[in-house]
Amino acid sequence: MADTQDTGYVDRKRTASVPVERMNVLISKIAAPSLTQFVLRLGLAVPFWRSGVKKWDGLFQLNDTAIYLFAEEFKLHLPGGPYGFPAPGLMAFLAGSAEILLPILLVLGLATRFAALGLFVITILVQLTVPSGWPLHLTWAAMALALMAWGPGRLSLDHLLARLAK
Fold first, then answer.
1. How far apart (Å, rounded) are the C-alpha atoms in residues 79 and 87?
2. pLDDT greater at residue 5 or residue 159
3. What are the start-end ranges of the H helices in the chain?
4. How many CA atoms lie within 13 A of 56 on its CB side?
5. What is the pTM of this model?
6. Which residues contact 10 (CB under 8 A, 6 or more apart)?
7. Residue 24, burial from CB neighbour count under 10 angstroms (0-12, 13-18, 19+)
8. Which of 6, 96, 121, 160 has minimal CB crowding within 10 Å?
9. HSE of 142 in the Cβ direction (CA atoms, 13 Å)?
10. Which of 27, 28, 36, 31 is nearest to 152 (CA)?
C-alpha cells in the first residue's frame, strides 16, 4: 500500500483498533494476574469456609447436625443410586476439617495447588450429592482448576517461600 502521507489514505481498521488496544492494556493492568489469582483464592475459600464453620460446635467437636446430614440426608447420586455416604461420622469429620483447613491454605496462598485440588474433589462430591446445584458447582470447579493450573500468584506465601528458597 502507498504511504499514508503521500496519498491521504487512512487505514481505518488500524485507527479503529488503537482505542481498543489502549482499553485492553488498561483492563489488563486492572486485572493483573496476581490480583486475579488472589481473588480466585478468596472466592473459592469463602463458601467452603462458611460451610465448614457450620459443622463445628467447638475445637474438634463436630455438631450433631453435620453427622445427621451425612448419615440421613446426603446421598451420592450415582448410577443405580442414590447411595448413602459410607462411615457418615468419619465423612462429616473429614469434610468439616477440609472445609476449614483448605480455605485457610488458599487465603494464605500456602500449598495452593494442593488446597485447590482438595476443594475440587469436594466440589465433585457436592455435585454428586446435590446435582441441581451444578451452576454454582461449575463455578467452584473452574476456580479450583484455574488455581491448580496457574498457581497462587505473587501475592502468596507459596511465592514468598519459592523466592526465599532461591
1. 20
2. 159
3. 4-7, 12-30, 33-53, 64-68, 88-108, 112-129, 134-150, 157-165
4. 18
5. 0.83
6. 4
7. exposed
8. 6
9. 7
10. 36
Please give the grid coordinates belonging to residue 10. 487512512
Phi-psi region of 43 (alpha: psi -120 to 50; beta: other; left: phi over 0): alpha
Among residues 101, 92, 94, the alpha carbon closest in space to that of 48 is found at 101
Which of left, alpha, beta for 69 (phi over 0: left; psi -120 to 50: alpha)? Answer: alpha
User: Per residue in 93-121, pLDDT tens?
Assistant: 999 999 999 999 999 999 999 999 999 99
Q: Which residue in 36, 157, 38, 47 sits closest to 108, CA to CA?
A: 157
Output the nine-digit C-alpha cell for 39.
Answer: 481473588
Mean pLDDT of 125-153: 96
Helical axes 112-129 vs 134-150, angle rounded to 10°: 160
**Of the candidates 71, 67, 152, the residue with the CA atom closest to the CA atom of residue 110:** 152
- Please say whether the beta carbons of 139 and 92 come within 8 A: no
Number of residues written out for the chain = 166
Residue 112 to residue 151: CA distance in whole angstroms: 7
